Amino acid sequence: MLLLLLAAVGAWQWFDSRKAAPAAGVPAPSGSMEALCIPRMKTGEGVTVVRHEGYTAAFNATRQTPEWVAYVLTAEEADGQVPRKDRFVPDPDVPSCRVTTGDYKGSGYDRGHMAPAGDMKWSARAMEESFYLSNICPQNRNLNKGDWNDLEEEAREWARRYGAVCIVCGPVGADEPAGWIGDAPVAVPARFFKVFLRMEAGGTKAIGFLFANRAGSRPLAEYAVSVDRVERETGLDFFASLPDEAEQAAESACRPGEWGL
Description:
Layout: H1 2-17, H2 32-37, E1 47-51, E2 56-60, E3 65-74, H3 75-78, E4 109-113, H4 124-129, E5 136-140, H5 141-145, H6 147-162, E6 164-171, E7 179-181, E8 186-188, E9 191-200, E10 203-212, E11 224-225, H7 227-234, H8 244-252
Antiparallel strand pairs: 1-2, 2-3, 3-6, 4-5, 6-9, 7-8, 9-10, 10-11
């Protein structure tokens, strides 16, 4: 217990100092908080990691969707006032991103943000880049505007309440696509994941969520799982730069009540 407490306190001091090293094998943004968000992964052929102002993404050229998107949302950013842009374009920094809005036309799927525009209202550039198609997946319309959107809104509340949260999300790449759309073509994810981490004087807290890419209207707590579960499903290693004991304690737990759910 003492070791766990010391690990948690050390993690908090490390997190607050913003001096940690980036995760291995991935170019990290400046500042330890942002570096903590970047998951460890086996970078396969056709995967490009790109860092934009508001988020970092790993884009899969075969599926024409991100493998993951990671960013930090702070309390100040959650209350940004930049208006929504609504201009979906291929990512100019990812030559392999050949998907266009035409690929979605008539597909029945929404252009679902991974890093949502609502989290990028703190910067005109961040807002514009959130509409890059390297940040977008075919998403069931009901899910996009319903439970997924509800979790996005909850995340902004968490950022305000806790000062900042690390967020990583994307399609569950280990799944076979539910289908393909457009000429690119673009893989339709069968499921999506989202993981969160916050750090406070009382220790490190983390929670994960898994969503099937279909209509549904359920309490968010019913989608909640441990981060360990999401790691098993995706093959990604989240928050790997944490001290081992703090990481294990945070990622093995699934306590929606600690997040107000």
